[in-house]
Amino acid sequence: MAVKRKAAARSEARYCMYLGPTIRGVIQNGQVFPGSAEDAFAALPERWRTREVRMLLVNEEQIPEALGRLQGGLLRRCRDRLADGTGA
After folding, report:
1. For residue 24, with 0-12 CB atoms within 10 Å meaning exposed, 13-18 middle and 19 or more buried, which class applies?
2. Helices (DSSP H) in 26-71: which residue ranges?
3. Which residues face 16 on adjacent strands?
């Protein structure tokens, strides 16, 4: 049951935010999208639908935690890979 509730909460997100580096002409750092992170990811051009971009799109309830995790760890590595051009 917990899995169903978590999935339902994800699909009901009012907005999501991109926490990665700006990709000129595609997506900007701090850009807010209506709906869930899955919806925003699906709307991106196919070339930019990478694991790194997906991990840096976070739903509204995850933003504070994700900002804290940007200080180090996996989200930081994803952000750095996109910034230096190796993540796309």
Report:
1. exposed
2. 37-43, 51-55, 63-69
3. 33, 59
Report the alpha-carbon distance of residue 35 to residue 15 in Å, rounded: 5
Residues 85 and 47 sit within 8 Å (Cβ to Cβ) = no
Cβ–Cβ under 8 Å, residues 66 and 19: yes
Domain ranges for the chain, please list them.
2-83
Long-range contacts from 58-64, C-beta under 8 angstroms, 24+ separation: 58/16, 58/17, 58/19, 59/10, 59/13, 59/15, 59/16, 60/13, 60/14, 60/15, 60/16, 60/17, 61/9, 61/13, 63/17, 63/19
pTM score, whole prediction: 0.73
Digit-coded pLDDT (tens) for 22-42: 999 999 999 999 999 999 999
SS3 70: coil
